[in-house]
Amino acid sequence: MSRGTLEVTLELTDDFSRAVKTSARPLRPSLMNLSKSITKSKQQEATLARQQKQIEALTEGLQKVAAQLELSKPTAQTVLNNQ
Q1: What is the dihedral angle through the alpha carbons of 40, 41, 46, 47, rounded to the nearest 10 degrees?
Q2: Which of 22, 26, 46, 51 has the most CB atoms around it within 10 Å of its CB?
């Protein structure tokens, strides 16, 4: 057994008095995998937060451009035809 590893074997009897053996996975690798998963999740959250800010900035810029285009449109004029 390597340092930092927990290996457990349980010997129990089931309802029919049969011996049942089970082993737990080593603890250290499981904790390391969990730690990696948490780190990856935090990185993904940070990436999503950055992307959300970028989307908001782009949306704001598009809204400003749309407003400027709206202001620069010539106004419609009605011509009366008096005959």
Answers
A1: 70
A2: 26
10: helix, strand or coil: strand
- List phi, psi (to 5°) of 22: -145, 150
Global confidence as pTM: 0.51
CA neighbor of 37 nearest in space, from 47, 27, 29: 29
Tell me the sheet residues that pair with 12. Answer: 20
User: Which residues, in sequence order, are bridge partners of residue 9?
Assistant: 23
Residue 6 CA to residue 28 CA, distance in Å, equals 7
Which residue in the block uniquely carries the two structure tokens 């457990």?
A: 8
- For 73, phi then psi, to 5°, come to -70, 140
